Amino acid sequence: MAFASFDKQRSSAPLAEINMVPLIDVMLVLLVIFIVTAPLLTHAVKLQLPQASSQVNNVPPDKIDFAIDAKGVRYWNGEVVTRAQAAERFQAESAKQPQPEVHLRADHQAAYGTVAETLADAGRVGLTKIGFVSEPEPR
Fold first, then answer.
1. Which of 45, 101, 107, 119 is 20 to 30 A from 126, alpha carbon to alpha carbon?
2. Tell me, what's the pLDDT at 44?
3. Helix boundaries (H) for the chain
4. DSSP 125
5. Is 81 helix (H, G, I), strand (E, B) or coil?
6. Widest distance between CA atoms in the chain
7. What are residue 1's DSSP bridge partners?
């Protein structure tokens, strides 16, 4: 870069180089302006928002302990019921959401017909969660 010259012949020739100093000065001024004003442009308000959980509230279904003894007597949660009463209660329980689980305990000497009737009554009204409860044989 030639700023001044003592040569008279070349002094009348036009300057073909760009003077970069003013451009750098402008760039540095703009940089300082952006650095100073950028934090002022963000408006943040500190809030403590409530936290929500996305977990489903699972309600465990009820369970019905239904037992049949060796004589064919039916028990609904320990209460003696007839076949008609059990069928009515099965009908009422099938309308609940979620459906309750039926835990069926049958004495090993109970008549199979009594157990089959109970299963048919529960299945007829739409109860599908029926499980058999047994005890292992003693060794």
1. 107
2. 73
3. 8-11, 21-41, 83-94, 112-124
4. T
5. strand
6. 134
7. none
